[in-house]
């Protein structure tokens, strides 16, 4: 047997080296699995507009800091292009995933308003300290500091106005008209949002600070509402049903509709649509006219009151969020429970093994020769190992599409091995004695087919790799990798092995 | 029996050979005009909540959610291993967390996964897909031309790749598979598979020196048959064993395309090539 000669052949040697190297890499580095296998959440965050690289980095860091305060482990934030950040968190429960999404959604433009005047924006928030419990007050407090200018402005506004409401807003619907149901209108004007009779009611504060008109819906005609909306950015229908939305839209007015969520109390609903946190009651110490830069928001409740603590944390996140240079919002969510991913991984491994066996069986049935079927299966297996080795080396996140890509590449790989085998066998059937030149010519023809099909696959897949932001880049990546390893390493080696094995026949 | 069929094909009238695949292509086009595959959530935008296990039942889930005025569509998906999963779809403006809470309270043992695609993300995905498909197709055409440098065989190879994709799309529409990023990737992969077999046939027929056209065709088709059956076998085991939707869909589309490719290569392309060679010989 020519085994020794075969092993020393350059192409076969290269294949063996690559396989050994790949196995060592896989053992040393381990394979990193994508979220759809390891379980976790992938959140696609979109920026309001395209930004340059340094702004993107700023957004990334500030999002990261904020998410880290949630106490969730293993968060990766990866910017894609100039407008998207992908956030991946492995191994989280659904509750944790939701709190992450909420926190991202809470980022935005920050305003602090008092009696109809904005006295601070995000830029004025200088520092936000840890949420802590204050036993003397019986409340959770969020200490923070504001700029000197904002403090002075606030001191003047607040002079003598004990117990007046202080509002903080995140992304209020600035410059719009709110058409609200009678019930909501009454609640907005109630003590809940006003605290003392002398203070301005909430709708008036909204009007003066943000040019938001709040209008109760009393079956006004569409024309009347259209008139109210003149010069405004949009009309928001709050708890108002009927055909108002479509008729207003037909007039070319930008209309949005807000409905209370299932189980949401009316006051929570109002806060949500306004982006309002608070209002908070103004303490006496701040009404003397003296500017204070060190402030705190306190939320009453016992030390065991988880809800109060949660609220305080939200406030702290809201205060911090003013520092984001551009608005961001959650565009996509993909949540895979960890147990499910593990199940998928097992199935894919099983499927891969079965697929290889099926391929081997079909090849055997076709040629009736184990000495063809076994090398074909082994070559394909070594291709899988080499792809996994490279993936481990560059720490590619192996997700389900990547694995599908590996199998697709193996599919073309087997095809090409069959082309080589048939060219070798075909020559022998006719000529009986193989001439060296005959083999070369036939191999040349086989490799022409192989190179042509490999080139087209790589060309087609590289466009997929280039243009897709989504997880399917993995599919393109492993396909290209598999085809490259195939034409450069495994196919030439298989040709050598097949030549030796088939010529031994006679 | 198979051998006889192949022999019949090898001696059939080229023009007849061309007609049938063209009719199939036109029927596929017609199907696509009448009913194009629906766009998946990742291209259309929306929310998908999938309930795995926990004995969830589509009708119960639907009434549970409709009772709270959620606008959802619910369907049940059975896999061949007997597991069922229930899929809830809704538009992006629903309160996903509330839906999940409701489902969890009713089916505490179920595992729930969810996917959301906002409108601008899905728009980007649509644009990217269109760009990827058209450029990949153009790239393929250029490569094929560079390799052959003869118009008729090159155009036939390109046309059969197109026909493979069109027929696969039509089959997707018939079997109710959605057009998603995953299925688009599979359609692109078809380009590679299709060129594989077509180039094999074209090289064998055009570069043959020692054999007759019939012999060359016969040897190519036997190689091609082994190639397709191995790939089909691998894809079928993938499809049968895995329950992950991405993998199932990619496998299904590749299977559709390979079946179409079998016809387009060994009947259509072979017919065109034999006609092309006959014409060349007459001159």
Automatic annotation (TrEMBL), chain A:
Which UniProt keywords are given for this protein, alphabetically ordered?
Cell membrane, Membrane, Protein transport, Translocation, Transmembrane, Transmembrane helix, Transport
- GO cellular component terms attached to this protein's record: plasma membrane
Q: Show the InterPro entries listed in the entry.
A: SecD/SecF_arch_bac, SecD/SecF_CS, SecD_arc, SecD_SecF_C
- The portions of this protein that span the membrane are 12-35, 348-365, 372-396, 402-425, 446-469, 475-494
Please name the Pfam families in this protein's record.
Sec_GG, SecD_SecF_C
Cellular localization per UniProt = Cell membrane
Q: Give me any GO biological process, just one.
A: protein targeting
Q: How does it sit in the membrane?
A: Multi-pass membrane protein
* Coiled-coil ranges per UniProt: none
Signal peptide segment: none
Q: Superkingdom, according to UniProt?
A: Archaea
Q: Domain Protein export membrane protein SecD/SecF C-terminal: where?
A: 333-488
Assembly and partners are described as: Part of the protein translocation apparatus. Forms a complex with SecF.
Q: Which family is this protein grouped under?
A: Belongs to the SecD/SecF family. SecD subfamily.
Q: What does this protein do?
A: Involved in protein export.
Protein name, entry field:
Protein-export membrane protein SecD
Originating species: Thermococcus litoralis (strain ATCC 51850 / DSM 5473 / JCM 8560 / NS-C)
UniProtKB/TrEMBL annotation, chain B:
Q: Where in the cell is it found?
A: Cell membrane
Q: What Gene3D superfamilies would the database entry show?
A: Multidrug efflux transporter AcrB transmembrane domain
Q: What residues does the Protein export membrane protein SecD/SecF C-terminal domain cover?
A: 110-278
Keyword line? Cell membrane, Membrane, Protein transport, Translocation, Transmembrane, Transmembrane helix, Transport
What GO cellular component entries does it have?
plasma membrane
InterPro entries given in the database record: SecD/SecF_arch_bac (IPR022813), SecD_SecF_C (IPR048634), SecF_arc (IPR024921)
Q: How does it sit in the membrane?
A: Multi-pass membrane protein
Query: Where does it primarily localize?
Result: membrane
| Family matches, as SUPFAM superfamilies | Multidrug efflux transporter AcrB transmembrane domain (SSF82866)
Bilayer-spanning residue ranges: 17-36, 129-148, 155-177, 183-206, 218-241, 253-277
Q: Which domain of life is it from?
A: Archaea
> Which GO terms of type biological process are on file?
intracellular protein transmembrane transport; protein targeting
Alphabetized NCBIfam families for the sequence: PRK08578.1-4
HAMAP family per the UniProt record, alphabetical: SecF_A
The family note in this entry says: Belongs to the SecD/SecF family. SecF subfamily.
Assembly with partners or alone: Part of the protein translocation apparatus. Forms a complex with SecD.
The entry's function note states:
Involved in protein export.
Q: What is this protein called?
A: Protein-export membrane protein SecF
* Originating organism: Thermococcus litoralis (strain ATCC 51850 / DSM 5473 / JCM 8560 / NS-C)
